[in-house]
Amino acid sequence: MSAPEESLDLARVAGQAAADKLADEVIGLDVSELVVITDVFLVCSGETERQVAAIVDGIEEALLTERRRKPLRREGERDARWVLLDYGDIVVHVQHAEDRAFYALERLWRDAPVIDLQIDEDPTA
């Protein structure tokens, strides 16, 4: 059984918002069979703390305006090295590129299926 459609929808909205802020390597992992606390991990990264903060802002704005969802919990904003946004159904990890390489969440959760986020790389097209 895979993640519910509502969780996949939230992940796609968040993934597109991250891509719109030029996030690197935006991926969604279906962790619904591996953990009980959430359905999807969305992982992306930015090159600087400023970009990480902009990606976080973009994701929060998109999920609020498009799906009327606010994060239940938010951590790591002060340093903007690894910001976690917990929406219940999805958990978003926005990491600085160096931290992403070091912690390698994709490797840690390699048993989780990758989700097709259907990201439009050129939203003006």
What does this structure look like?
This protein is α+β, with helices and mostly antiparallel strands. The protein has a single domain, classed as Beta Polymerase, domain 2, CATH 3.30.460.10. 37% of the residues lie in helices and 25% in strands. Strands 3-4-5-2-1-6 form a 6-stranded mixed β-sheet. A hairpin with a 3-residue loop joins β4 and β5 (90-96). α1 (5-20) crosses α2 (49-67). The relative contact order is 0.24. The mean pLDDT is 94.
Number of domains: 1
What order do the SSEs take from the amino end to the carboxyl end, as H and E? HEEHEEEHHE
DSSP helix fraction = 25-40%
CATH superfamily descriptor: Beta Polymerase, domain 2
Strand line-up in the sheet with most strands: 3-4-5-2-1-6
Strand proportion: 15-25%
Average predicted local confidence, pLDDT: 94
Unreliably modeled segments: none
Q: What is the radius of gyration computed over CA atoms, rounded to a whole number of angstroms?
A: 13 Å
What's the CATH first level? Alpha Beta
Count all strands and give the number: 6
- The tally of helices reads 4
Structural class: alpha+beta
Please tell me the CATH architecture by its name: 2-Layer Sandwich
Distance between the termini: 35 Å
Q: Could you please say which CATH topology applies here?
A: Beta Polymerase, domain 2
Largest sheet: 6 strands, mixed
GO cellular component, one term: cytoplasm
GO molecular function: ribosomal large subunit binding
Organism: Brachybacterium faecium (strain ATCC 43885 / DSM 4810 / JCM 11609 / LMG 19847 / NBRC 14762 / NCIMB 9860 / 6-10)
Subcellular location: Cytoplasm
